[in-house]
Amino acid sequence: MIYNGIAGSEGIAAGKAYIIKNSQTEIDTIAVASDAIETELDKLSEGIELSRVQLIRLKEKVEKELDESKAQIFEAHRMMLEDPEFIEAVRDEITTNSFSAAYAVKKVTENYLTIFEQIEDDYMRERAADIKDVSSRLTRNILGISSWDLFSIGSPVIIVAHDLTPSDTAMMNKEYVLGFTTDVGGSTSHTAIMARSLGIPAVLGLGHISSEIKDGDDLIIDGIEGKLIVNPDKQQKEDYNRRISELQARRKELAKTASLPAVTLDGKRVEISCNIGMPDDIKHGEANGADGVGLFRTEFLYMNHHTLPTEDEQYEQYRKAAELLQGKPLIVRTLDIGGDKKLPYLPIPEELNPFLGWRAIRICLERRDIFKTQLRAILRASGHGNIFIMFPMISGVGEVREAKNVLEETKEELRKEQIPFDESIRVGIMVEIPSAAMTADAIAKEVDFFSIGTNDLCQYALAVDRMNPKVAGLYQPLHPGILRLIKNVIDASHKHGKFTGMCGEMAGTEEACIVLLGLGLDEFSMSAAAIPNIKNIVRTVTLKQAEEIANQALELATPEEVLEFSRNKLNEIRRDLL
Ligand code: PEP
Ligand code: MG
After folding, report:
1. Catalytic site residues?
2. Which of 429, 430, 431 to probe ligand 1 with, by most ligand atoms within 8 A of CB?
3. For the whole model, what pTM was predicted?
4. Cα of 249 to ligand 2 centre, how many Å?
5. CA 171 – CA 153 distance, rounded (Å)
6. How many C-alpha atoms does 338 have within 13 Å on its Cβ side?
7. Quick one: which H or E segment has residue 552?
8. Beta strand spans in 371-516 (E)
């Protein structure tokens, strides 16, 4: 039986099903007599204390046995649990309505969830999962029901669940979890983000799969096509086993050369870097041969908090990333919030077109307090490594100048306070708005580098919403119009002796690789898993070949023609090498 879902994380795995039942906790007592209110308040306090201790222990355990970034989730949960507003609201329900402690927690959680689930933002909606997770731990502790523990899995399995809570995924041991599949979730869900960072395949959004599959069923999970095969027949097993072996063999082969520099056959070196959301992602990047970090999406630091992260909290993270990289470049992008990324504690007025609205640098230039705090943290960390600052969503020279002025003011403040930082820190911008791409020659005079953000550049240049599945077919990075914009940016930077990188998804795709190389791209930044393949392609061509291919691609009329042409060229080059 084949089920079609959403490809949450690439890869293919075969194994036995391990069903996780997220049993609902039944609450029998809704209201209590007035003389029992004190007892309920005590139960609440004890439940909070027990949950707090559990979360601290879990954090320590995951930190020790898995890794630090995954342990952060428990820290976030502890903060939610200890949120005075939340506790006060629950106490209030107990004293005013005589609700039992467990029921009061349920009521307050529901109120929170209603607010969260209304937010039109996948990422924020997923944060509702954290609230549910904390609330169900607290409820179980109030009612004296023991907690589920994913650490107990002792043999390789494929996890099947209705949904996985953030603490479930944080506890997963990669040794035993071959892949996972869930009834709900989308490609930006916590589960998908976690699966990608663990590097294990996941297929999500499968409807009622967790109640249709039995423990021990044979499963094949295809995270490339978004398919789940239950109890495959002999032929399907053979086909997939062959594909798994091919994938493994290819990965193994590519891994051999992943640490080598990306140099073309005629000696042109380019940087192949990784995109990160948290400092710990660097380990995964380096294991795949990353030359540095081409994009640190710092908004994750803000999203994992319930208030704005302080200067010191940010400094610790930037410094950690810089130190982990030991001198390799770290491009830190300043806060890119707005559009599809919102913060619950930073209200953004309702907008008709959030992607064309108040976001990223536009917010920072208005909220100087937020901007300066971040710049101070980045500057302070710059003394501990090779840090570059990058401003997102720049539309023209004016914003660059304004942002640089704020940076200069911040530097001056630090000098006055005698706080050391890298005086020659380099400053660049994301080129992701067409007007910036078209005026790149003027902007190049103001900055040290560009990084092309094709995820947004394509949506703005092609007028295709990057989140709208209905127009997904029109989202074509190899559109001749996009290639011309990219060429314009690279040429302008080179004319002024600056470099251009690319940190949009396009940089990690093999169809675009040779064309981008030929257009003169200096740095390619991508998710860690894509690095070995891209490095390998760079090492199989000459710059001259790539330039010819790029020139020919620029002459083509449609995205389909470019795609077919570049695929054919790549195949020819690979064939010639055999
Ligand atoms: C981009 O727009 O290409 C980019 C890398 O930034 P984000 O995906 O975070 O918007
Ligand atoms: Mg962007």
Report:
1. 190, 503
2. 430
3. 0.73
4. 34
5. 10
6. 23
7. helix 543-555
8. 386-391, 426-431, 449-452, 499-502
DSSP SS3 for 357: coil
CB of residue 454 inside a 6 A radius of ligand 1:
yes
Nearest to 286, CA basis, from 325, 238, 343: 325
Residues 302 and 162 in one domain: no
Of 109, 143, 177, the residue that ends a domain is: 143
Cα 254 to averaged position of ligand 2 atoms, centre (Å): 29
Residue 469 DSSP symbol: G
The CB of 459 under 6 Å from ligand 1? The reply is no
Angle of helix 37-65 versus helix 101-118 axis, rounded to 10: 60
pLDDT value for 147: 56
Same domain, 499 and 373: yes
Please list, residue by residue across 525-553, b when 16 or more beta carbons sit within 10 angstroms of its beta carbon and e when fewer do: bbbbbbbbbbbbbbebbebebbbebbeeb
- Determine the pLDDT at residue 387: 98
Angle at 289 between CA 283 and CA 293, to 5 degrees: 65
Integer CA distances (angstroms), 225 to 10, 103, 190, 422, 542, in order: 8, 43, 20, 46, 33
- Using the atom order of ligand 1, give the atom closest to the CA of residue 505: 3
Task: Please give the structure tokens belonging to residue 169.
Answer: 């995924």
Residue with tokens 């907008």: 351
Domain finish residue from 143, 159, 191: 143
How many structural domains comprise the chain?
3
Q: How far is the CA of 224 from the centre of ligand 1 (A)?
A: 22
Pick from 92, 84, 95, 97: nearest CA to 48: 84
Q: What is the mean pLDDT of each run of 10 residues along the chain (578 residues)?
A: 84 91 69 89 91 83 71 83 91 93 92 78 70 86 69 83 74 81 71 71 89 92 91 94 91 93 97 92 93 94 82 96 98 91 80 91 97 98 98 98 98 98 98 98 98 94 80 88 98 98 92 97 92 96 98 97 96 86
- Phi/psi for 334 (5° steps) reads -70, 165
Cα angle, residue 414 at apex, residues 412 and 416 outer, rounded to 5°: 70
- Measured in Å, residue 411 CA sits from the centre of ligand 2 at 26
- 240 falls within a domain: no
Q: Which domain holds residue 63?
A: 34-143
**Rounded Cα gap, residues 314 and 310, in angstroms:** 6
Ligand nearest to the backbone CA of 453: 1
Ligand number, closest to the Cα atom of 361 = 2
* Pair 122, 167 in one domain: no
Kindly state if the Cβ of 188 falls inside 6 Å of ligand 1. Answer: no
